[in-house]
Amino acid sequence: MLSIMLENKKILILDHAIFVNEIPIHGPGLNIYNTFKTMSPESIEYFAHCLDGINKSYSCKYCFEKEEIQKAGLPLKFIAAPFSFVYCICYSFLKFLFASHDICIAVNPLNFLSCYMLKCFGRVKKTVFYTADYSENRFSNKILNNIYKSCDRFSVKYADSVWNVSKTICATRKQQGVSDSKNFHIPNSPVLSHFEEYLESEHSKYQIVYVFGTISKSSDLFANHQFDLLMETIDYLVEKEDKIQLLLIGRGNFEKYFQSIMTEKLLKHIRFCDIEDRKVYIKTLCASSIGVAFYNLSGAAHLKFGDSMKIREYFAAGLPAITTPGHSLAYEIKEHQLGFVVETLDDCKMAFEKLLFDENLYSAIQQRVKKYAIETDKVKTILPALEKLD
Questions:
Q1: What does the domain layout of the chain look like in residue ranges?
Q2: C-beta neighbour count of 254 within 10 angstroms
Q3: Which secondary-structure segment (H or E) carries 70?
């Protein structure tokens, strides 16, 4: 059905992303690109500015089963904010001013401004504002925060369709007056068919997996991921079962940042993996038994509205999840009993023990996880939004 809807369509995705080795890591925009790429549109183009400003912008175009990658523009670190915002808007607009697209999907308000300008010039037929995260207080700087909120309100008002990664953002959009006919929940779920060939492969009962994006300094481990809580729990578990392995999957040279918080005994039970290939990554997830995602939401209010891509991928791989409270997906884990939401060390120990050592409980939760993954498959969730847009 999705293939038929996208037939002969030219699609453009505008994004901001974290880059590793000059390539964007797999985020909401790239997730949409990879979804559509399997559905035979005439062409689909993904264009991303680097969030930390170190790298040039990245362009990836898929047309007639061939992919062309380019890097262009100035690294944003050479342009001070708010001028860097203006640069991003203008650069994206000028880059695609002489091309035409049926649909433009803009991830975040800045990209939507470029998208809207392209529509005004007749270069885009339909516009989508895709909210990957949200916060009333996104920036500590009052002026920047007011600019952000004004751009967000403009995007919501003038987009042909508003897509949101979480139910929490959907509810916020409804309060802002967005009608149900253009307000859609498009979670960060992967395409389930990409996982299917690995789901029945043998998995390690005692392999726990933790996926994160990038680590730039050792304090990130505590500030963003609560790794101290995880390390204490693993230290406790290996006393009960020596076969337990914690697999840490990230991007870049992150192993050195763990040395300060790990004992030699603990390091024997930990593997570090920098996996660039998507298929290898999926296969590795499917070979594990439990997925972990800990967040420290203090000082990162936008994460409360976000949708954890790593947890969505755990579910697609058939893994029960253990996470901390506060973010939108934690509520769904509780509601649908897809794992455990933990706050204290005792909570953490209990959750891992139940999943590792109670086979009946693990099997029951895993069945619910697989059912939930089917219900929230990317292709299934995106269809209603595209039907309304068409």
A1: 2-186, 193-375
A2: 21
A3: strand 66-72
d(CA 334, CA 311): 13
Does the fold of domain 193-375 match that of domain 2-186?
yes
Q: How far apart are CA 318 and CA 57, in angstroms?
A: 35
With b for 16 or more beta-carbon neighbours within 10 A and e for fewer, the 190-204 pattern comes to bbbebbeebeeeebe
Per-residue DSSP letter, 260: G
Residue 242 has pLDDT above 80, yes or no: yes
pLDDT digit string, tens, across residues 145-157 = 888 899 999 999 9
Task: Find residue 185's DSSP bridge partners.
Answer: 164
Identify the band that residue 344 occupies on the pLDDT scale cut at 50, 70 and 90: very high
Q: Which CATH class is domain 2-186?
A: alpha beta
Token pair, residue 131, equals 């909210």
Alpha-carbon gap, residue 307 to 163, rounded angstroms? 13
Which CATH number does 193-375 carry? Answer: 3.40.50.2000
